[in-house]
Structure formats: structure tokens, C-alpha cells
Q: What sequence folds into this?
């Protein structure tokens, strides 16, 4: 599944979603457990989780009345791939800028 990179970065742009990812890096947690320290409702966490699930960062599953969440790697891989594809261009431009600035010093 190819992820929309704009949507992936939009998902990471929200501080609550980044906090959810940070908490899930400690291990799987229930939606209610995620909501406690963030000071938001379980409904709001559910909406954030939907975005994170659509962008490949989180997987949720329901067992009885409890919905648990865990990290997934697809979203992180999309960010890594995007950065790798752009790194050479950025490095070349920064090298050119460094050379230009060095010439101005002389």
C-alpha cells in the first residue's frame, strides 16, 4: 500500500498524535490508557488513532470492550524513504551554499 506522504507528514504535525506515538513506543496500550495522561477524551484519541492508522503508524484491534493499539512501521518507512530520496539534493544544495559563503569570506 502506497501512503500519501503529505498525509503522513500531516499526521506527524499534530502534537497529540506525536505524543500517542511516543507512548506506544513503550508498548501496546488501550485507547483509555492513552487518553489518561494527554488530557483529551477517549473519543478524541479515537479520532487521532484513525489518522495514525490510515497513515500506517498504528494498528488497533478490539478484544471484547477494549480497543488496544500498537505501533506499525509503514508510516515510519514512508518518512525514511522520502528523506532518503531527498537527502542527495539537499546535501548538494547545502554544499553549494557553503562554497558560496566561503567565497564571500575571502
A:
Amino acid at each position: 500500500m502506497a501512503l500519501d506522504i503529505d498525509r503522513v507528514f500531516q499526521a506527524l504535525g499534530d502534537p497529540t498524535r506525536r505524543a500517542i506515538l511516543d507512548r506506544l513506543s513503550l508498548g501496546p496500550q488501550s485507547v483509555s490508557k492513552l487518553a489518561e495522561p494527554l488530557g483529551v477524551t477517549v473519543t478524541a484519541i479515537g479520532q487521532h488513532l484513525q489518522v495514525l492508522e490510515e497513515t500506517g503508524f498504528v494498528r488497533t484491534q478490539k478484544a471484547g470492550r477494549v480497543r488496544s493499539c500498537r505501533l506499525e512501521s509503514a508510516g515510519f518507512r514512508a518518512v525514511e524513504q522520502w528523506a532518503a530520496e531527498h537527502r542527495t539534493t539537499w546535501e548538494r544544495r547545502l554544499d553549494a551554499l557553503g562554497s558560496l559563503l566561503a567565497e564571500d569570506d575571502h
Q: What stands out?
A: The chain has a mean pLDDT of 91. DSSP finds five helices and three strands in the chain.
